[in-house]
Amino acid sequence: MIVTRDTLSQLTYGEDGLIPVIAQHVDSGEILMVAWATREAIEQSLERGRAVFWSRSRQSLWEKGETSGHTLSLIAIHADCDRDTLLLLVRPHGPACHTGTVTCFGDDRLTRGGDFAFLATLENVIEQRMRSNDPASYTTRLIAEGPKRLAQKVGEEGLETALALTAGDDHEARNEAADLLFHLTVALKARGLSLLDVINELRRRHTPN
Q: In order of start, what are the domains of the chain with their CATH numbers?
């Protein structure tokens, strides 16, 4: 069940008025953290568009990132089949854990959704570079040069990847493919697109009509 203001009354809370909440990265599928929420916390999450929980230690509402700035943008809330556990689909802005790791379960490859989940991490880093306007950042400087320069870099890296695949060794092929994927991701983000948009297009082509 998708949780909205109209379906809040259908949720099952514990005797203490709390319901467990799992926050999951909407793009990578990583489980970021587990927390608790009251009805008011859920209402605030829906209203603010950011994850709000209930702190059992402080006995008060708290918005994730209210002091660190590492907020969780809310995409959707789903309830499980018994409607007594919530899944928050979120897009994180910075580490989800107060210790500085991406997830509260550590940064081990398996706990973070496997190897392919790193692509979502890469997109997040590129997005942060875009917002920082740091002149020392290669990504920031590249985007500032405009779409034509980005397109040129994608073309250059594509050609170098093709040459490496035909004439180079495996090490060179991996390096050039990594350069191509990075520059393609930057170009997509600069245009307001993401790798998820590309994946959805591939999924659409794969789905039988």
A: 5-92 (3.10.20.810), 115-206 (1.10.287.1080)
